[in-house]
Design a protein that fits this description.
The chain contains five helices and two strands, in the order H-H-E-H-H-H-E. The chain is mainly α. It has a single domain, classed as NAD(P)-binding Rossmann-like Domain (Rossmann fold, 3-Layer(aba) Sandwich), CATH 3.40.50.720. A two-stranded parallel sheet has the order 1-2. The longest helix has 21 residues. The radius of gyration is 16 Å and the shape is globular. Belongs to the short-chain dehydrogenases/reductases (SDR) family. This is SDR family oxidoreductase. It comes from Chitinophaga caseinilytica.
Length: 112
């Protein structure tokens, strides 16, 4: 989500995520004639062990959760299982005409 929000002090990270989105679009144009679909997924702030370690104290974790519940349309923390369906969809025949897209799976944090 830092790409869409343009997060302060994360220029290097935001730029790399923007590059992935641009790469996705360009590659989709290049290989579309070969019936190859290219898409990317932008998850929100998925609650993982790494995040818990990175955030640190229980107070900081609660503050992060409070922030996310205030900005997401779905007021709960995102779990890894919340993005599985997006991957399954893109891997299935149901997405055979979807290419060059960025699928945002973030509980309604950033809406396009």
């Amino acid at each position: 989500m830092t790409f869409f929000a343009g997060s302060k002090n994360y220029v290097h990270y935001v730029a790399s995520k923007g590059a992935v989105i641009g790469f996705t679009r360009a590659l989709a144009r290049e290989v579309g004639a070969d019936n190859i679909m290219v898409n990317c997924i932008t998850p929100g702030a998925v609650l993982t062990e790494t995040e818990l370690e990175k955030v640190g104290s229980k107070e900081a974790q609660e503050k992060a959760t409070e922030f996310l519940l205030g900005v997401q349309a779905i007021p709960r923390r995102q779990q890894t299982d919340d993005i599985v369906g997006v991957f399954v969809f893109l891997a299935s025949a149901d997405s055979d005409f979807v290419t060059g897209q960025t699928l945002n799976a973030d509980g309604g944090w950033m809406m396009h």
